[in-house]
């Protein structure tokens, strides 16, 4: 069949039209990308300037919102003989206060149980609870140590110190009890050396100060509460807080005084008597004076006690410790309070209320 020119465009015309359409598409696409890029840059600039403007309006523009606080090793540890179980220098984390809190201080003592024998203290010295060699070099400050006013409205701009725990006896041990072992029992010496160092960097000018601690650190806060008051200016407002540090002097479910035996060994091993109240020591054996129920009787500084209604550590280690339940009837209960039946709950309540 012969080709008809009226039925289609010549090949050259089709090619020209296609090229024109392609160029138009490219030009239009380029314009779109240019417009989109311009709009994006405009929105980004507005967001950035808005953010910078909000920062400039902050009441604390110069305060660094760092989330991690470095470890500081005690400067004169060797001279003062204030050393961890393994002989390393003890440490603390310090964040300076600002604004209205620049002369207020919050000290928080780390917790972590105790060691009551040469064997347990030897194991401990290879951990962060017995040696600064194993301590984290940077830690976050949160909760009562936070610098976020929405999270910590009362203390966010105070000078804040977290005292690391590396002696195994709530900062109450004495070197006289070392007796030639390769373990150093210097808890009391560490406490005094850290206080001296903090006093030299501003604590001596405190207007308000709070000594706090959690668990074994809460017990340390009780032991050293009045001493903390004594080293600060008389005009300063000083208080103490023990969080989950009220350990019970109670028999376990089998009738044994497990915690008494444990505290007896801690007090004897590390020579705690010198750090406990003299009036209490005059009336009873030193290990009994390590229980908070005796310590609080002699504290003169205002004191806050914070404790959970359900303390899983005390259930597992004081009321239902290993060995108190040879048949394993309490195993599930001691691991989770939800697994305790009504009779077990009544038993636990009676032990804590005696």
Automatic annotation (TrEMBL):
One of its GO terms (biological process) is cell wall organization. Keywords: Cell wall, Cell wall biogenesis/degradation, Hydrolase, Membrane, Secreted, Transmembrane, Transmembrane helix. Its main location: secreted. The keyword Transmembrane applies. One of its GO terms (molecular function) is hydrolase activity. The chain crosses the membrane at residues 33-52. Its EC number is 3.1.1.-. It comes from the Eukaryota. The keyword Secreted applies. It is found in: Secreted, Cell wall. Hydrolyzes acetyl esters in homogalacturonan regions of pectin. In type I primary cell wall, galacturonic acid residues of pectin can be acetylated at the O-2 and O-3 positions. Decreasing the degree of acetylation of pectin gels in vitro alters their physical properties. Belongs to the pectinacetylesterase family. This is Pectin acetylesterase.
């Amino acid at each position: 069949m012969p080709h008809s020119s009226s039925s289609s465009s010549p090949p050259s015309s089709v090619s020209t039209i296609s090229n024109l359409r392609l160029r138009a598409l490219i030009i239009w696409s380029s314009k779109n990308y240019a417009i989109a890029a311009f709009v994006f840059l405009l929105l980004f600039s507005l967001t950035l300037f808005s953010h910078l403007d909000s920062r400039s309006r902050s009441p604390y523009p110069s305060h660094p919102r760092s989330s991690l606080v470095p470890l500081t090793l005690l400067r004169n540890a060797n001279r003062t003989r204030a050393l961890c179980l393994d002989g390393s220098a003890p440490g603390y984390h310090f964040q300076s206060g600002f604004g209205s809190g620049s002369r207020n201080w919050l000290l928080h003592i780390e917790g972590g149980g105790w060691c009551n024998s040469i064997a347990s203290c030897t194991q401990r010295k290879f951990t962060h609870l017995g040696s600064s060699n194993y301590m984290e070099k940077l830690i976050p400050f949160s909760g009562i140590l936070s610098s976020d006013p929405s999270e910590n409205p009362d203390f966010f701009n105070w000078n804040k110190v977290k005292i690391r725990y590396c002696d195994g006896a709530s900062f109450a041990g004495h070197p006289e009890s070392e007796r030639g072992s390769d373990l150093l029992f210097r808890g009391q010496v560490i406490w005094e050396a850290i206080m001296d160092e903090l006093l030299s960097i501003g604590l001596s000018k405190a207007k308000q100060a709070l000594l706090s601690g959690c668990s074994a650190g809460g017990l340390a806060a009780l032991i050293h509460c009045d001493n903390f008051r004594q080293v600060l200016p008389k005009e300063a407002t000083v208080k103490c807080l023990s969080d989950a540090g009220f350990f019970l002097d109670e028999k376990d479910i089998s009738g044994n005084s497990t915690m008494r035996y444990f505290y007896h060994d801690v007090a004897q091993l590390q020579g705690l008597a010198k750090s406990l109240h003299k009036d209490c020591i005059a009336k009873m054996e030193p290990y009994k004076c390590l229980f908070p129920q005796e310590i609080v009787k002699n504290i003169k500084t205002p004191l806050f006690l914070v404790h959970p209604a359900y303390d899983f550590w005390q259930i597992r280690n004081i009321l239902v410790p290993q060995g108190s339940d040879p048949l394993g009837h309490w195993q599930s209960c001691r691991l989770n309070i939800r697994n305790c039946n009504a009779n077990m709950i009544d038993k636990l309540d009676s032990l804590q209320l005696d």
